[in-house]
Design brief:
- The structure holds 3 protein chains of 3 kinds.
- By secondary structure, chain A is of the alpha/beta class.
- Chain A is globular and about 65 Å long.
- Chain B is mainly β.
- Chain B has a 4-stranded antiparallel sheet, with no helix packed on it.
- Chain B is globular, with a radius of gyration of 14 Å.
- By secondary structure, chain C is α+β, with helices and mostly antiparallel strands.
- Helix content of chain C is 21%, strand content 28%.
- Chain C is built from 22 helices and 52 strands.
- In chain C, strand 18, helix 7 and strand 19 form a beta-alpha-beta unit.
- The longest helix of chain C is centred in the middle third of the chain and has 18 residues.
- Chain C is elongated and about 115 Å long.
- In chain C, 58% of the residues are buried.
- The chains are: A alpha/beta, B mainly beta, C alpha+beta.
Chain lengths: 417, 96, 997
């Protein structure tokens, strides 16, 4: 892999950028791999990258039914934070946050992690109780998160409306300064490049249609639209399609897939300097490097794999944005789109071994998976390589729904992520 | 915005009158107190989450307030049919 | 300044009706009916903007919504500044103020243009490869630099005084697009008498007839026919004609969203809304969305003065504006010839037509030749002179070789062919297919009840278009249940016919060249960027798009997508359809947030719920808090009191005398029927069968998973009738939860549920004097302790109106909750207040209510519990019927983790120093000396200063809390660590004697 640098750019500038090599190759699938990852989103590609880099397992294929990074990785609003309440969640999200800080250098690919701060607004007494509970728990877990008065919140984010006359006035906010955003495509591409350079095969337009199991019940490979591919171990990282893939191995999942929509405005000069989220008025906003306001909220209400949603949900989202930022009514929506998110009953992910030998699953990130990408991939690679969970993902088992040991962030925070 | 036919009102109404209510035909065990942890997990948490034909419940919450069942294609979001709560899962679907 | 490029007598505007406007501070004249673009061009102004990345000078490319370059800010006044407005869409009004964007210090001299010189470094995706060293510089240096360079216009900084309207509409036939095809379809459909809506983004219907001077229909010029047809439609009762209205989103089941620009074109909008959102449900949709001309891809093809041939025709034939005095044409199809011919006939010199095709032929070519226009067949434009305005073109044979020639021009009309607008079809989830013969993506498989007609369906020629559209309109009406008659189909007498064109880069910009031949103007994506993306391994068009940002600008790739796709396909050596087509995402053109938000702004963002006594509280100085949609009285400060003082006074007064509290927001459900008690047994953990009529019980409701869902006092009014109360926030979901079980799991039970939250106003009268206060007003109820003990309910009258009178207490004092019909709430409150004053009672708010209940250790579901708490955790095991064989949650409760040791349990906390009040949400540890991350064993759920106890009090969830009584724990705060002792939850009147006090 030729290193990217300002010198490389200068060199290429002199020769018309003809010397760049392919960021990843597109080889024909081999007959068998040590590990097959199903799903080439950020989590799947990252898993392959860490399998190769940290565990020396390079005989790996990542299978993708469409184009890599084309699922939720390329469709989300790129919010990164780790100010979760419970130790288990804080553990995995902060593991990710630590990896974000340095990921560009590790991958030699600028993923534009921007620690611009994530501000979460409180609009009533209940919000204050809930957010302060987070602030205190975070502090004792070593995670930065601080309390702001409405005036401090406005100082940090000048267009925010803190008028007492608002329908739901801002009465305070929490701020995680290390939180922020990153460039979603770059995350997929950076991991793909890093994995490919280490020998991982990334095979796009290759849909998994079945999981083959041996006499002892353990997996032996996958049936795909490009034929059978043998595998000693299979890691399923298929987000909204996880139930479908896991059913191929007769594992039924505690998951429901919902549409999640997002939108961007036309690009404007910098105006929103951080991420602002509100669970009560229910929307979130940030501004991209390109100048677009990036806006999202909750899921549509019904199951769907259609990657599309309804206008009235976007309407609610924009209502909320214009409640927090009344100056934005003259801004224009440029583009809206939908993804499919897989949601568990406790809104926390599953990163675990399964009852089937050699089959591992990483799913259930709901509306908040992007922020976890490096951490999730890192511990999932560990889980596959060692056939046992990393201490960080040990609580995120599949059987917690049987035992009742849930990690229910939503119960404390009312609305997801 | 979906148009949903309420089998009680016998007319199509816009989605904002309805609330989705999860997978259909997941009956609460009559002997629930004595089922195993695994059976409880299956009943309460495990969901088919089918890509394709889904059997699901809706409530006409801002209308007649009745719960009912629907068959829908989760790929296209197109409704295939709706029927009353308690009616058996249809064996044959119209147009399928 | 004179409009030196306005041709007298040309075009359709009344040139005598002038309008003034300014652009970048300079004043210009225009004509009513102009767009900002046509008015600028009339004044010879081509330079109107700067590109996103290289700050290249840019002119006006188009005459419509596809415009990538001519974006300006429109400033009506200080609070009405709109960024990124397309000058080609903005209609001129007298006094319009426009400013250019993304330039400093001026449009003509822009420092940012240095990026253009450094552009070899700024290749596609360069930012992924650098700015990583040193690491800290990303945040301090590189990112701020990148961000400050980004963006086009400037966001408004004041609240928007304009308002936005919204309409829902239903129709049988919705026609999207009001060109010849849309008009024909609408005429046919309208004849049925069914409801028809036709919309078009332009100010007038007519579509491409606006510039097609050669069309004639029914004995009229094409444009005049269109106006007559539009007028006929508008006069019909069953037809709604919407102009300035863009269909921007096509959703499921023929639900189409339209954005109408109501007043942006008016000098004085008066009281009109700025824009209006139409949400239309149609039985059938006719897509008549036309096609969009593509530019040619050649070196420096972005110079101001280079514009689409059809745009130049529009400016000439409609607005009477010549886009230059000496124009050139560069094309790969016939349609641009018509532009040359029109201009030539209008007296404009046409220096040359450069045609990439080897031997152009046909009637239009012949006509151009006959007019004396030089035609350079088989040649391409390989160079462009001029920077702020095109000054010359250099022409070379397509196949290379000698014969290079430079021709002076002041404008260049370009056309690479036409791209069908399949955006809305694609949004409807229809699948497009690539027609290799004509190199177009066309509607293939339909997913909804719609039909495409005319140019967007790949139908060439006016006669064929009208045939197709008329038939489709009639068919749509028939399918929607209408009858169509025999009215005459419009007859096309003359039309223009266009052939194909080309996709991709032309000569001079082939693979291997390093020139800037723009594919996407606004985002500065060149042909070589796309090739580089492919070389770097981007094989899917989605990757190419995201890597280069081709098609992601505000025009969403209307002119660039097909070129980009063709160049990528060529570089990959694949056919176009193998590389794929990027998804068409709503909106078709950008839509203001205001249009979508409509009225839901400010106070109307969400409904506000007020109780019957709200006005009284307001008049008595209450401070309110938001609880869900409710406004609840929080506390009643008297003169000079802060919140603390007011709450202390209220707390003391209630325990000393009495207080009145508005409890109306609590949810109330009536459970009625022969099986009501059996149903209650299933819904609540408690036993109900043996509860006597007239008695009350505190009920706990679980979810099936065993966690507390809600609670409340339930009164049994009769054998078959329960009056259930819920938490304020839980009212709707508890009703839903009950209905769900009743309708689907327990339908055999004869029970009826009625939400009565709105029907009853509830006045809590609490305190030792409570009975004295209500007694004079109550009729027909014996209030003695014997006749009406704590936790009982009676029906009778108060102040002459019916009441359900509960004897219950959330304060620990003797107390009543007076339910009266909501209409009488305020009157009864007033009467009770008058009685209360005699006993020095106070009115109190939610804060005092919270303190009083905490003093007694009464929990609040949602504050002291959070969805992970079982009845045992909350110390409510006593409320779980041990002999019951079923209730919702019975099995969930038994799961291993819910019965495990060490769960967090609710306890009381006393701070070592009584004056210290803990912070709600603060975390609790056993050992404060541990390093971070510390092991946390619980958190403070409720915490108050208790004036009655003379100290602070708190409730907390603590691991194994009930076994820790008397233990010292710690609450580490940022500035100190607070010592606390674990105690029981009751801080006041532990024996509960005051309930009868």
């Amino acid at each position: 892999m030729k290193k990217y640098s300002v010198f490389a750019i200068a060199r290429e500038a002199m020769r018309g950028h003809r010397g760049w090599e392919q960021q990843w190759t597109s080889p024909e699938p081999k007959a068998e791999y040590d590990v097959v990852i199903v799903g080439a989103g950020g989590h799947g590609l990252g898993t392959a990258y860490y399998l190769a880099k940290e565990h020396g397992i390079t005989n790996v294929a990542v299978l993708e039914k469409g184009w890599l990074g084309g699922g939720n990785t390329g469709r989300n609003t790129t919010i990164i934070r780790s100010n979760y309440l419970y130790d288990e969640s804080a553990g995995i999200y902060d593991h990710a946050l630590k990896l974000w800080d340095g990921l560009s250098q590790d991958l030699n690919y600028n993923v534009m992690y921007s620690a611009r701060g994530v501000m979460m607004l409180a609009h009533n007494v209940h919000d204050v109780q809930s957010l302060k509970r987070h602030v205190h728990a975070n502090r004792l877990n070593g995670i930065d998160n601080e309390w702001l008065t409405p005036e401090q919140a406005k100082d940090y984010c000048p267009p925010l409306n803190i008028s007492r006359d608002a329908r739901y006035p801002v009465v305070g906010a929490s701020l995680q300064r290390r939180g922020g955003t990153a460039r979603h495509d770059a995350v997929a591409w950076g991991y793909a490049r890093g994995a490919s350079a280490r020998g991982v095969h990334i095979i796009q337009n290759c849909e998994v249609t079945g999981i083959r199991r041996g006499p002892n019940g353990a997996v032996t490979g996958v049936e795909t639209s490009r034929g059978f591919i043998g595998a000693k171990k299979i890691g399923v990282v298929a987000a909204g399609n996880t139930s479908v893939v896991m059913n191929m191995a007769d594992v039924r999942m505690p998951l429901e897939s919902y549409p999640l929509q997002a939108l961007v405005s036309e690009p404007i000069k910098p105006v929103v300097p951080c991420v602002v989220m509100s669970n009560t008025v229910h929307a979130y906003i940030s501004q991209s490097d390109k100048g677009e306001l990036v806006i999202g909220a909750g899921t549509d209400q019904y199951y769907s794999y259609s990657q599309a949603g309804a206008l009235h949900n976007l309407e609610h989202t924009l209502d909320a944005i214009c409640e927090m930022f009344p100056v934005f009514t003259r801004m224009k929506m440029l583009r809206s789109w939908g993804g499919v998110v897989d949601v568990t009953p406790d809104r926390s992910p599953i990163l675990a071994k399964t009852p089937v030998g050699g089959l591992y699953v990483n799913c259930g990130w709901g509306t908040g998976g992007f922020k976890a990408t490096p951490g999730s991939a890192h511990v999932f690679a560990h889980t596959i390589a060692r056939d046992e969970p990393h201490p960080i993902n040990a609580p995120f088992t599949l059987d917690r729904f049987r035992t009742g040991r849930l990690i229910d962030e939503a119960a404390a925070a009312a609305v997801a992520h | 915005m979906l148009l949903i036919r309420c089998p009680y009102c016998e007319e199509e109404r816009p989605e904002i009158e309805f609330r989705h209510a999860g997978e259909a035909h997941v009956a609460r065990p009559t002997d629930i107190a004595s089922i195993s942890d695994e059976e409880f997990e299956t009943f309460f948490f495990i969901r088919a989450n089918t890509r394709g034909t889904v059997y699901e419940r809706w409530r006409h919450v801002h209308g007649c307030a009745r719960f009912f069942n629907a068959v829908r294609d989760s790929m296209s979001d197109r409704f295939i049919m709706t029927y009353k709560a308690g009616d058996p899962k249809p064996k044959k679907l119209p147009g399928v | 300044m004179a409009e030196s490029f306005r041709l007298p007598g040309r075009g359709r505007l009344a040139q005598a009706r002038t309008a003034r406007f300014t652009f970048d501070g300079k004043s210009y004249g225009g004509v009513a009916g102009d767009t900002l673009a046509s008015a600028l061009l009339a004044n010879g102004v081509h330079l109107v903007g700067r590109s996103f990345k290289y700050h290249r000078p840019r002119g006006i490319l188009s005459a419509g919504a596809e415009e990538p370059n001519a974006l300006v800010g429109i400033h009506r006044d200080a609070s009405r500044k709109t960024p990124n407005v397309r000058a080609t869409v903005q209609e001129l009004y007298d006094g319009l103020t426009a400013v250019s964007q993304n330039r400093w210090p001026s449009l003509g001299f822009d420092v940012g243009a240095v990026n253009d010189l450094a552009s070899p470094f700024f290749s596609a995706g360069f930012y992924y490869k650098t700015f990583m060293w040193p690491k800290a510089a990303w945040k301090s240096l590189y990112e701020p630099f990148i961000r400050s360079a980004a963006g086009l216009g400037v966001a408004p900084d004041q609240s928007d005084p304009d308002h936005y309207a919204a309409r829902f509409a239903h129709c049988e036939v919705l026609v999207l697009g009001g060109g010849a095809a849309g008009l024909a379809a609408a005429l046919a459909a309208a004849e049925s008498g069914l409801r028809v809506i036709i919309c078009d983004e332009q100010a007038e219907l007519g579509g491409s007839l606006r510039f097609e001077s050669g069309a004639a229909i029914d004995g009229q010029n094409g444009w005049d026919w269109a106006q007559a047809a539009a007028a006929r439609l508008a006069a019909m009762d069953n037809v709604r004609v919407l102009t300035r209205t863009t269909a921007f989103g096509y959703y499921l089941q023929n639900f189409v969203a339209l954005a109408e620009r109501v007043s942006d074109h008016l000098s004085s909008p008066g009281g009109l809304p700025r824009e209006r959102l139409w949400q239309v449900r149609a039985k059938r949709v006719v897509l008549a969305t036309g096609s969009i001309e593509r530019h040619m891809v050649f070196p420096d093809n972005d110079r101001p003065g280079v514009m689409l041939a059809s745009a130049a025709r529009t400016y000439l034939n409609h607005y009477g504006v010549a886009v230059g005095k000496n124009v050139g044409v560069y094309t790969a199809n016939d349609s641009a010839y018509a532009g040359a011919i029109d201009l030539k006939k209008a007296g404009v010199n046409v220096a040359a037509i450069v045609d990439l095709r080897d031997n152009p032929s046909g009637p239009m070519v012949d006509e151009a030749r006959a007019l004396g226009i030089e035609i350079h067949g088989g040649r391409g434009v390989v160079r462009v002179g001029g920077r702020l305005r095109v000054s010359s073109i250099t022409v070379k044979p397509r196949t290379g070789g000698d014969g290079e020639r430079t021709i002076a021009v002041d404008a260049l009309l370009v056309s690479a062919g036409w791209t069908p607008s399949v955006h809305l079809f694609s949004q409807s989830r229809g699948k497009v297919t690539f027609n290799d013969e004509v190199k177009r993506f066309l509607p293939g498989t339909y997913a909804q009840d719609c039909i495409s007609v005319g140019a967007c369906n790949g139908t060439d020629g006016l006669a064929a278009t009208i045939d197709e559209a008329y038939a489709a309109g009639a068919k749509a009406a028939r399918e929607a249940g209408g009858k169509t008659g025999k009215a005459a189909k419009p007859k096309v007498e003359a039309s223009e016919s266009w052939s194909r064109g080309m996709l991709g880069a032309g000569p001079g910009a082939e693979a291997g060249t390093t020139v800037k031949a723009f594919v996407d103007f606004q985002n500065d994506v060149t042909a070589k960027d796309i090739r580089q993306a492919v070389r770097e391994g981007m094989q899917s068009i989605e990757h190419v798009k995201r890597f280069t940002t081709n098609g992601m600008a505000t025009d969403q790739g209307k002119t660039s997508n097909m070129h980009g796709l063709a160049i990528a396909a060529e570089e990959l050596g694949k056919a176009v359809p193998e590389v794929g087509l990027t998804t068409f995402r709503a909106p078709y053109t950008p839509v203001t947030f205001g249009t979508i938000v409509g009225h839901a702004r400010g106070k109307l963002f969400d409904p506000t719920r007020r109780t019957a006594m709200h006005g009284w509280a307001e008049r008595h100085g209450a401070v309110f808090e938001d609880v869900g949609q409710w406004k609840r009285a929080w506390y009643f400060p008297q003169r000079g009191e802060d919140m603390h003082a007011a709450v202390n006074r209220e707390c003391v007064t209630v325990r000393k005398s009495a207080g009145l509290f508005d409890a109306s927001t609590l949810g109330k459900i009536e459970v009625v029927g022969p099986d009501a008690a059996a149903f209650m047994e299933l819904m609540y953990t408690n036993p109900w069968q043996k509860l006597e009529a007239g008695r009350c019980r505190y009920g706990v409701m679980l979810r099936e998973d065993g966690f507390i869902y809600d609670d409340g006092v339930v009164g049994r009014l009769a054998e078959d009738r329960f009056h259930v109360t819920t938490t304020t926030g839980g009212a709707a979901r508890v009703m839903n939860h009950m209905e769900d079980y009743l309708q689907t799991e327990f339908p055999h039970l004869k029970v009826w549920l009625t939400s009565i939250s709105e029907q009853w106003a509830v006045i809590a009268v609490q305190g030792p004097k409570s009975r004295d206060i209500i007694a004079p007003l109550v009729e027909g109820i014996d209030l003695s302790d014997e006749a009406m003990p704590h936790m009982s309910v009676r029906e009778g009258r108060i102040c002459g109106v019916p009441t359900r009178l509960f004897r219950m207490s959330f304060s620990g004092e003797r107390g009543f909750e007076v339910n009266v019909p909501a209409d009488y709430g305020e009157a009864v409150w007033e009467a009770l207040w008058a009685q209360g004053r005699k006993h020095d009672a106070c009115a109190y708010g939610t804060e005092t209510m919270h303190v009083l209940r905490a003093e007694k250790g009464y929990i609040i579901v949602g504050q002291d519990t959070d969805g992970t708490v079982t009845p045992n955790d909350a110390g409510l095991d006593w409320a779980v019927g041990k002999k019951k064989t079923d209730f919702v949650g019975i099995r969930g409760l038994k799961r291993p983790d819910l019965v495990a040791e060490g769960r967090r349990q609710l306890v009381g906390l006393r701070t070592r120093h009584p004056d210290v009040v803990l912070e709600e949400g603060a975390q609790i540890v056993a050992d404060p000396k541990l390093p971070v991350p510390m092991k946390m064993i619980g958190h403070v759920t409720s915490s108050y200063w208790s004036e009655n106890c003379g100290r602070s009090i708190a409730l907390a969830l603590v691991e194994g809390g009930r076994k820790r009584m008397g233990e010292t724990l710690y609450v580490p705060m940022p500035d100190r660590t607070i010592e606390v002792e674990v105690t029981g939850m009751v801080f006041f009147d532990e024996k509960g004697e005051r309930l009868n006090g």
